[in-house]
Amino acid sequence: MQAVSHGEQLFLDGDRERGVPPCQGRHGADARAPAYAGGRYAAYPRLGGRHAPYLVARLRGYRSDQPQYGSNDFVMHGVAHALGDESIQAFATWLASLPPAEK
Fold first, then answer.
1. pTM, whole model, 2 decimals?
2. Per-domain residue ranges of the chain
3. Contact of 46 with 65, CB cutoff 8 Å
4. What is the CATH number of domain 2-97?
5. pLDDT tens-digit profile, the chain (103 residues)
6. Residue 88: which residues within 8 A CB-CB, separation 6 or more?
7. Which contacts (CB < 8 Å, 24+ apart) does range 4-13 have?
């Protein structure tokens, strides 16, 4: 259960010493991603309820500088470089434990 609490703490508060910003600023405190005001499209991906292996693969991909397709990818490359495998697993475990967002 330690990984879950560590993942939640990283998501909500970040890690200032390692240069990891709080994820809730972009993905929402509930990891459901805030939608554009008055619109149905989210500015950032919904992460809550996603499968942990998918999240781990994406974060490791960002960390290993896989191709960038948009400005969100560029931001995530910088964040992921500050994350170790333990932190990536903690994020994925906590996010996967959340209920998926309704469509």
1. 0.83
2. 2-97
3. no
4. 1.10.760.10
5. 445 589 999 999 999 999 999 999 889 888 988 766 556 666 788 899 999 999 999 999 999 988 878 788 888 998 999 999 999 999 999 999 999 866 5
6. 55, 56, 59, 60, 63, 80
7. 4/90, 4/93, 4/94, 4/97, 5/94, 6/86, 6/87, 6/90, 6/94, 7/87, 7/89, 7/90, 7/91, 7/92, 7/93, 7/94, 7/95, 8/94, 10/87, 10/90, 10/91, 11/91, 11/94, 11/95
